[in-house]
Amino acid sequence: MTRDVVITGMGVVAPGGVGVKPFWDLLVSGRTATRTITHFDATPFRSMVAAECDFDGAEEGLTPQELRRMDRATQFAVVSARQALADSGLVAEELNPFRTGVTIGSAVGCTTSLEREYVVVSDAGREWLVDPDYAVPHLYDYFVPSSMAAEVGWAVDAQGPCSVVSTGCTSGLDSVGHAVRLIEEGAADVMIVGATDAPISPITVACFDAIRATTPRNDEPATASRPFDNTRNGFVLGEGAAVFVLEERERALARGAHVYAAVDGFASRCNAFHMTGLRPDGKEMAVAITAALDEARVAPQDVDYVNAHGSSTRQNDRHETAAFKRSLGEHAYRTPVSSIKSMIGHSLGAIGSLEIAACALAIEHGVIPPTANLHDPDPECDLDYVPLVARNARLDAVLTVGSGFGGFQSAMVLTSPKRAGR
Questions:
Q1: Cα dihedral sign for 19, 20, 25, 31?
Q2: Where are the domains of the chain?
Q3: Is 270 considered catalytic here?
Q4: Which of 65, 114, 227, 281 is surrounded by the fewest CB atoms within 10 Å?
């Protein structure tokens, strides 16, 4: 018999606020957290806007040693994990540590600290032979993304399966999908899982400038992210983290846990086509969606809401619009769709987990977050993208999707805790 997996705890660090409530309040209000970059002087770059987190690790309970040791993205993950564990009602000391695991998704790992320390040891790039005497003792931890999962494991005393999933922009979906499988197969009882990224740094901005993927709309940062809008011209970089406590359903119910949603279906595919290009027919994403729906035993006509990847690029928006039509059939025209990247930007590997958090909260509150800045819909994107204002709706089955450079396509189905399990 399949072990159904549910979300019983949630922690969030996001643009617009730290914690689940500020995150949700921002989304349902339709406000945006995108602004001119303040982390560094971005004036030499093509794209100078981002969705930054107003985050102070000390205020969030991190010790001076933790602040010195951890990269910004790792700090996000640890703070979110502690929030999630507290929210779940579980106490680390009462858990079997060998049956408690960690999976963290990240696209770019500890990029911020790695770049900062390279600047130091190379004397701002002037020295080809770097001087290791100037390196911090934690430089190796910045180099290996596994340190992020290890730090979370130490923070919650999880000594079971521990891993990092790095599949680009689908990392936040794929990490949760992997953790679900570990619980289903009996390798763990509880998983602390999610994703984090803090990519707002010169090297990351330069990388996306090079392929012209980010928006040059620098004079309008608050409205620069415009998914499905005819005037969009690239995505807005973001940062943040979301971490969940996952448990087997019967175990959670037996202890009287609050259940946000069940994770009933997950699938991932690769288009084996192009590093950044997407076929216009959306076939690969459609295949992933169908597989996730089949696993969840949810018919296409029973999908109540789709959380789109909605990156604010013409290629992606048209690709996934085609995928929704291909996988949901005529029901796609009756299904509300929206993109929260319009409000919190695209935090690369972290965004998939932030979108899962948004979907679980949408189910709990019966509210669909809007697509901000959608004033002039692209005629080729002709579905119901819930523009500008949140919408009340009963949500029993929600689909969330992700698309990443390299051809990664992932889909996940979350269902209401009131719905019978698989």
A1: positive
A2: 5-254, 265-415
A3: no
A4: 65
The active-site residue out of 162, 309, 319, 381 is 309
Which residue out of 53, 162, 169, 359 is catalytically annotated?
Answer: 169
Which CATH superfamily includes the segment(s) 265-415? Thiolase/Chalcone synthase (3.40.47.10)
Q: Is 274 a catalytic residue?
A: no
Question: Tell me, which fold does domain 5-254 have in CATH?
Answer: Peroxisomal Thiolase; Chain A, domain 1 (3.40.47)
Q: How would you label 196-235 residue by residue, b for 16+ Cβ within 10 Å and e otherwise?
A: bbbbbbbebbeebbeeebbbebbeebebbbbbbbeebbbb
Catalytic pick from 53, 346, 359, 381? Answer: 346
pLDDT tens for the chain, residues 1 to 422: 577 999 999 999 999 999 999 999 999 999 999 999 999 999 999 999 999 999 999 999 999 999 999 999 999 999 999 999 999 999 888 889 999 999 999 999 999 999 999 999 998 888 888 888 888 888 889 999 999 999 999 999 999 999 999 999 999 999 999 999 999 999 999 999 999 999 999 999 999 999 999 999 999 999 999 999 999 999 999 999 999 999 999 999 999 999 999 999 999 998 777 766 677 788 889 999 999 999 999 999 999 999 999 998 888 899 999 999 999 999 999 999 999 999 999 999 999 999 999 999 999 999 999 999 999 999 999 999 999 999 999 999 999 999 988 779 999 999 999 876 66
The pTM assigned to this predicted structure is 0.95
